[in-house]
Every structure is written in structure tokens, then in C-alpha cells.
Write a structure and sequence with these properties.
This protein is of the alpha+beta class and about 350 residues long. It contains 15 helices and 4 strands. It folds into 2 domains: about 10-230, Transposase IS200-like (Alpha-Beta Plaits); about 240-335, Orthogonal Bundle (Chromosomal Replication Initiator Protein Dnaa, Chain: A), CATH 1.10.1750. α7 packs across α8 (about 200-205). The longest helix is centred in the C-terminal third of the chain and has 22 residues, at about 240-265. It is elongated. It starts with 11 loop residues before the first strand and ends with a helix.
Length: about 350
């Protein structure tokens, strides 16, 4: 069976879901769950993503993701690959952690009902799975979900989580009263799931599980525009080209200029410097950690020789926190004003 093409465009919203390989758990302990959240935050740093809802289950996770730039594929490749590598390293494992392709369902946000449906679907996952018992447990006590973050004050939420759109679809504001009403609304839905009235909710969620998009017919027509060659009867081309790399390259160019300012260097000085210099290690670390630009691009821009040298330079930078390297890293953190 042919794979469905990934539809990417600026400003897209997706319901993203990924399962563990062979149905196995993807979170072996709470440390892994915290690690996944940090990795998601780093992915948002790199890509500019906005997360509107998430939930960690046992062997899968759900995200409601907004991509201001057309970079879903590049960002997901980095996030899933990085999380897998980190879990394998911590637990002395090897091989695939996640099963096959992740699911990415484009969502129509012109009519808020579709967006609201996905928010509810994600936040009520613990109830449907039996991890939370409606009427007995409070949904906000399930700590591995964005629902608890919705009930918190803004300064206690992750920088990458935005709640205003979901609250606004219910006519609510991000105030104590608005958050309390959102809690009441969602808890009522949870209790409804336990009754016959919950059948309507479950039927409304069927398209999330089985469809290729979520929205009206007009939204489907819009999506077709983003499928190269489809209307001409040609095989849709891969989305791994320039569109996917656009955000990463743009951000890498800006970060390279920032890194050179920190180093008090001019770009014209890079060709004459050693390929393994500490300055180039810092630039490789900065670009690799904060963008999706590939090693070939980075190696060419900083005159590091073969692209295989980039991994070595990054490790060199990561191993140093004192001296000039530590100073440059701290200055980068101050200038960029964002987390690790």
C-alpha cells in the first residue's frame, strides 16, 4: 500500500500520534516522560512549533501541533530520532522505540469545532483508556497531559504550550475564572463518556482515528492544492525538498550571524581557521542544537570540511562548560532568550 504523502504548509495544524514499536511502552519511567517533554520543547525551539494540547499514554502519545513554517517532517524526524537515542542510551537499549510512521492528521481551523474536537479527544484519552475514572478521579490529577497546564497560571506553563486558542473557542479567557470554567467543561465531558450520551462523542472522534484529514469538504479542496502533481494524475512527490528545509536554513543563517557576533569574528575569517578549532565547534553546536539544518549545510558554512566532522565538533563543544566555550554558550543563552 502506497504511503500517504505528508502535507506541509505554513500555518498548518495537525493531530500527531505515534505508538511504541510492537505496541511496547515508550515511557519506561517518569524520567522518560520528563525527557520526552524536554525533547518536545527543544523541537519547538528548533522549528517554531506551537503545541495546543498533548497527552502521554503508556505506549503512545498525542499532540495538537501548529507549524508556522512547513517543517512538520523535519521537526518530527529530529524529535522522534532524538528521543529514541536518548531513551536507548539511558536504558542501555538499541533499535526502534517507535512503530513505523507517526500519524499526522491535518485539521481545519476555520470552523473551531474541529480544533475543539481534537483538544477534547487528547485531554480525555486517560479517561477512555481507564487511567482516569470519571466521577471518581479528577482529570487534572493526571500529570502527563496538557490539561493540568491549562489549569495553571501562564508563568508555570512550558513556553511552547499555548492555550488561548482552545480557551477562545469556548468563549473563555486565560484568567482564573476562565481556567475554572474550562476545567468544569472538560470534567463534564469526562462524566458524559461514562453514560450512553457518550456515544455521540465517540462517534465524533471516529474521523480522528480513521480519516486522512479533519474538516469540511472545502478544507479537503484546500489540502489538495498542497499535493504536488496530484491533480495531474502524477505520483505525489516527496515533501523532503526545499519546503521542508526552509525554516531550518533561515534560522541557521540567523544563528550563524549571531554566533559570529558572539565570537567577534567575520564570516570571511572562517576559511582560514582550523577545521577543528574551538570557535567552529561552538558554531557547529549552536547550529545543530537549535535548527534542523543538516550537517552538509553546516559544514559548508563554517568551513569544517567533511560533513562527518560536525558530530565530532558538537561533542567537543558539549564536553566543555568552562573557559571560552562556557562563556560563548552563556552569551548565546542570554542573546537567544530561550531554553535548552
Amino acid at each position: 500500500m502506497a504511503r500517504k504523502p505528508r502535507i506541509e504548509y505554513a500555518g498548518a495544524f495537525y493531530h500527531v500520534m505515534s505508538r511504541g514499536n510492537r505496541g511496547d511502552s515508550i515511557f519506561l519511567d517518569d524520567t522518560d516522560r520528563e525527557l520526552w517533554l524536554r525533547t518536545l520543547g527543544q523541537a519547538c525551539n528548533k522549528t517554531g512549533w506551537r503545541v495546543h494540547a498533548y497527552v502521554q499514554m503508556v505506549n503512545h502519545y498525542h499532540l495538537l501541533l501548529e507549524t508556522p513554517e512547513p517543517n512538520l517532517v523535519a521537526g518530527m524526524k529530529w524529535m522522534q530520532g532524538t528521543y529514541t537515542q536518548r531513551v536507548n542510551r539511558i536504558h542501555n537499549l538499541y533499535g526502534h522505540l517507535l512503530q513505523g510512521r507517526y500519524k499526522a492528521l491535518p485539521i481545519d481551523t476555520e470552523d473551531g469545532k474541529w480544533f475543539r474536537t481534537v483538544v477534547d479527544y487528547i485531554h480525555l484519552n486517560p479517561v477512555r483508556s481507564g487511567l482516569v475514572q470519571a466521577g471518581k478521579d479528577m482529570l487534572g490529577d493526571y500529570v502527563w497531559s496538557s490539561f493540568k497546564e491549562y489549569l495553571s497560571s501562564p508563568n508555570r506553563r512550558p513556553f511552547w504550550l499555548t492555550v488561548n486558542l482552545a480557551l477562545g473557542e469556548l468563549g473563555l479567557e486565560d484568567t482564573p475564572k476562565g481556567r475554572s470554567n474550562f476545567e468544569l467543561y472538560t470534567e463534564n465531558l469526562a462524566e458524559k463518556l461514562e453514560t450512553r450520551n457518550g456515544d455521540a462523542l465517540r462517534q465524533g472522534w471516529e474521523r480522528i482515528r480513521r480519516g486522512w484529514f479533519l474538516g469540511d469538504d472545502s478544507f479537503q479542496e484546500t489540502l489538495v492544492i498542497h499535493l504536488p502533481g496530484l491533480l495531474k494524475g502524477k505520483k505525489a512527490e516527496s515533501f523532503g525538498g526545499a519546503a521542508k528545509r526552509e525554516h531550518g536554513i533561515r534560522e541557521a543563517q540567523k544563528l550563524l550571524a549571531t554566533g559570529l557576533r558572539i565570537l567577534r569574528l567575520d564570516a570571511g575569517m572562517l576559511p582560514g581557521m582550523r577545521k577543528g578549532s574551538e570557535e567552529k565547534a561552538f558554531l557547529a553546536w549552536l547550529l545543530r542544537r537549535r535548527t534542523t539544518a543538516d550537517s552538509n549545510w553546516i559544514a559548508g558554512k563554517i568551513y569544517a570540511g567533511h560533513h562527518g566532522n560536525i558530530s565530532r565538533l558538537v561533542k567537543q563543544a558539549e564536553s566543555k562548560e568552562a573557559g571560552p566555550m562556557g562563556k560563548w554558550k552563556r552569551e548565546a543563552g542570554r542573546m537567544l532568550k530561550c531554553g535548552d
